[in-house]
Specification:
Four Helix Bundle (Hemerythrin (Met), subunit A); two-stranded antiparallel ribbon; Arc Repressor Mutant, subunit A; about 230 residues; mainly alpha; 2 strands; elongated
């Protein structure tokens, strides 16, 4: 099952073997790994190297350590990449155009898939979220509801990569959605337009009309792009 390791950077080779076993389907989400002692014996390396490899894998979001139970394969890679991506974006002087293009790439396809693949329960949930956006009650944070709608749509796409890309980019996208909404409302007083656009997007998805959903999402993203270019 495991190979003996004799070269340098032993802990990295332990990591590589576990990653390869995941890619080959030999280890799956939820599987429990052998104990440190058993892994050490199987691979012919020290427990210190095994412990270091497991620590790195946990940081990467590939495994999780459960007190008193052991180490398990998990799927927290998306959330573990969120902060590094935000830092890379900032350090490389990324701007709103990068985020708009990313949103176009992800959300224009996601909205069509959501209209096709969303379950009846998800459609009802989307309807309830969108209704909150038009309520006059000030307890609702419109920016938070706005981003909740977009995240819900990506989840409804049932496409793992679309959802993962969106989740990894969540820090950037959520802040951008809230900030761009505030700017559109502040400079152009277009809150009703934004609410109407979201209403049309959600209604098209609920009606299972992917072409209309795409059209309304594109209009929405075009408005954001136009506004950000003018400010």
């Amino acid at each position: 099952m495991f190979n003996n390791i004799t070269n340098e950077k032993i802990y990295q080779q332990v990591i590589n073997q576990i990653q390869n076993m995941i890619l080959e389907g030999k280890l799956k989400n939820g599987d429990k790994l052998m104990s440190e002692r058993e892994l050490s014996q199987k691979m012919g390396v020290s427990r210190t190297s095994i412990r270091e490899a497991l620590r790195v894998l946990e940081t990467m979001g590939i495994i999780e350590s459960r007190q008193g139970e052991g180490n398990f394969i998990c799927n927290k890679i998306e959330t573990s990449l969120m902060q590094p991506l935000s830092m890379m974006f900032t350090l490389n002087n990324g701007d709103y155009k990068d985020i708009i293009e990313l949103r176009q790439m992800i959300e224009l396809e996601a909205v069509k898939l959501a209209a096709i693949r969303g379950t009846d329960e998800e459609l009802e949930e989307l309807k309830m979220i969108s209704q909150r956006l038009t309520k006059k009650d000030e307890i609702y944070n419109k920016g938070e509801i706005d981003k909740e709608i977009h995240y819900k749509i990506t989840c409804m796409s049932k496409n793992f990569l679309i959802k993962s890309l969106y989740t990894i980019s969540l820090n950037l996208l959520e802040n951008f959605i809230i900030n761009s909404r505030q700017k559109i409302v502040e400079f152009y007083h277009e809150e009703e337009t934004l609410n109407l656009q979201h209403k049309k997007i959600c209604e098209a998805i609920i009606d299972r009309d992917p072409e209309s959903a795409y059209k309304y999402m594109k209009e929405h993203l075009d408005l954001i792009k136009f506004t950000m270019e003018k400010i």
